[in-house]
Design brief:
By secondary structure, this protein is mainly beta. The chain has one domain: Immunoglobulin-like, CATH 2.60.40. Helix content is 0%, strand content 43%. A hairpin with a 2-residue loop joins strand 4 and strand 5. The chain is elongated.
């Protein structure tokens, strides 16, 4: 006699909190914020974590927007530009979002319980950029998928 049981794959992501960046002066400046993502999976092959923006560019208000950061690389924009981007786990390599195209931000080839990934966001308006006033918003989705 043989007794078998199958255990199905599980993957869970703790709710990701919203991020409110500090106000940026009309004369230019930058603002940074972060959120933590916790992933658990029993999949032997692990998981991948992706981030997707609903719009392109990601950070927008009506017809006005911040450019998606051109990275990956160290943060640097011209005085005449504005940009919005993110980095992972306090890495100084920032990148922009790409509309509805998912960007893989992490993989792990093992089972994990509450593995932490911190997402850092940055918005900047250059000192010579006349950015329209108002509240801009980026609608982002973080997805964990088993491998």
């Amino acid at each position: 006699m043989t007794v078998t049981v199958a255990v199905t794959d599980y993957i869970g992501v703790d709710p990701v909190t919203n991020v409110a960046l500090a106000d940026i002066s009309g004369l230019g400046g930058s603002s940074e914020g972060s959120t933590d993502v916790y992933v658990s999976t029993n999949n032997d092959l692990g998981y991948k974590l992706e981030i997707t923006a609903a719009g392109s560019p990601a950070m927008a208000k009506g017809g006005d927007s911040f450019a998606d950061y051109a990275g990956p690389g160290a943060w640097s924009i011209a005085a005449t530009d504005s940009a919005f981007g993110f980095s992972v786990d306090n890495n100084t390599s920032y990148q922009g979002l790409n509309g509805g195209t998912p960007i893989q931000i992490k993989t792990n080839g093992n089972e994990v319980v509450n593995e932490l990934t911190t997402l850092f966001f940055k918005a900047e308006v250059g000192a010579s950029k006349l950015q329209a006033s108002g509240t801009y918003q980026a609608d982002l989705t973080v997805t964990a998928t088993t491998l």
